[in-house]
Design a protein that fits this description.
This protein is mainly alpha-helical. The chain contains 17 helices and two strands. The protein has one domain: Orthogonal Bundle (Farnesyl Diphosphate Synthase).
C-alpha cells in the first residue's frame, strides 16, 4: 500500500495547480486540503480494482487522483460551520480554520471542477463510451443520489433516531457512493469485464464502502483525537445517529465483520475476479481492522 500512497501523493502534487500561480491563495488552499494526509483508501481501491482489469497504472493514477480530489473537496465542505463545524482534519486545522470559510468553499468547488477536467483531458479507457461512463459514475457519486444527498439526509437526521435500514441508506450515499465509484472507475481503465464480474465487483465495493463507515463510527466512539487526526466523539456530541448508537458497539463490530466476509465472497464468486483480487481482499481487511 505504501508504494501506491507515495505514488498518489506525487501525482496529486503534480496535477494540482502550483501554489505560486494566480490566484495563489486559492491554489495553496487546494493543495492544503489534498496533500500530506489521509489514508488514500479510494485511490488504493481504484488501483486494486484496476489489477483485475489489467489496466495501465498511468491511466489509473489520473483516475484515482480525480476521485481523491472529490474526496478532499467533500471533506473541506463537510467541515464548514454550516455543515459539521469541525476544526481538525488529518491532524491539522481544517481548511476554513487555516484559511477562511470563503476560501474553503471555493477550494472545494475548484477541486471538484479539476477532478472532472482530469477525466476529460486524459485518455483513460480504450473505448470513449467507457470513459464517458466513468465521468457519469463520478458525477453520480457526487450528486443528490450520492455524497450530497447522503449529507443532506445526515443533516436532516441530526437529533433523530434512525433504524438500521435508514442508517444504511444514508451511508450508502454519503460514504459508500464515492468508494463504489473508485472501484468501478479503476476497473474501467482496463480491459472490459463481463457483466457478472462487474456486478460482483460492485457488490464488493458496496460492502467495503459500508464497512468503512461502520468502522469510522466505532473509531469515533473509541479512539482519541490524536489517533484519529480529527475530533473524536463529535457524532455523539452532535446527536447524530451512528452504527454505535443504533446497533451498539458489539453488534456494529460484528456487522463490520459480516460485511468484510461478504466482500471477500464477492471476489471469489467469479473467476475473472478471483485470479487477480488479492489486493482487493487485503483492502477489505485493512478497512475493517484499521485502528485510525
Amino acid at each position: 500500500m505504501g508504494g501506491i500512497q507515495a505514488r498518489m501523493e506525487a501525482a496529486l502534487a503534480r496535477l494540482l495547480p502550483p501554489a505560486g500561480v494566480v490566484p495563489e491563495r486559492l491554489h495553496a488552499a487546494m493543495r492544503y486540503a489534498t496533500l500530506e494526509g489521509g489514508k488514500r483508501v479510494r485511490p488504493l481501491l481504484a488501483f486494486a480494482a484496476s489489477e483485475v482489469a489489467q489496466a495501465e497504472p498511468a491511466r489509473v493514477e489520473i483516475a484515482a487522483a480525480a476521485v481523491e480530489m472529490i474526496h478532499a473537496y467533500s471533506l473541506a465542505h463537510d467541515d464548514l460551520p454550516c455543515m459539521d463545524d469541525d476544526v481538525l482534519r488529518r491532524g491539522k486545522p481544517t481548511l476554513h480554520v487555516e484559511y477562511d470559510e470563503a476560501t474553503a468553499l471555493l477550494a472545494g468547488d475548484a477541486l471538484q471542477a479539476l477532478a472532472f477536467e482530469l477525466l476529460g483531458a486524459h485518455r483513460l479507457a480504450d473505448d470513449p463510451a467507457v470513459q464517458l461512463e466513468m465521468v457519469q459514475l463520478l458525477a453520480s457519486a457526487c450528486g443528490s443520489r450520492g455524497m450530497a444527498g447522503g449529507q443532506a439526509i445526515d443533516l436532516a437526521a441530526t437529533g433523530k433516531a434512525l433504524n438500521p435500514a435508514e442508517l444504511e441508506f444514508m451511508h450508502i450515499h454519503k460514504t459508500g457512493a464515492l468508494i463504489r465509484a473508485a472501484v468501478r472507475i479503476g476497473a474501467g481503465c482496463g480491459r472490459p469485464l463481463a457483466p457478472p464480474a462487474r456486478e460482483r465487483l460492485d457488490h464488493y465495493a458496496k460492502c467495503v464502502g459500508l464497512a468503512f463507515q461502520v468502522v469510522d463510527d466505532l473509531l469515533d466512539a473509541d479512539a482519541s483525537t490524536a489517533t484519529l487526526g480529527k475530533t473524536a466523539g463529535k457524532d455523539a456530541a452532535q446527536g447524530k445517529a451512528t452504527y454505535v448508537s443504533v446497533l451498539g458497539a458489539a453488534r456494529a463490530r460484528a456487522f463490520a465483520e459480516e460485511l468484510r466476509e461478504e466482500a471477500r465472497k464477492a471476489l471469489v464468486a467469479h473467476p475473472d475476479l478471483a485470479a487477480r483480487s488479492n489486493r482487493l481482499a487485503a483492502l477489505a481487511d485493512f478497512i475493517v481492522l484499521r485502528k485510525f
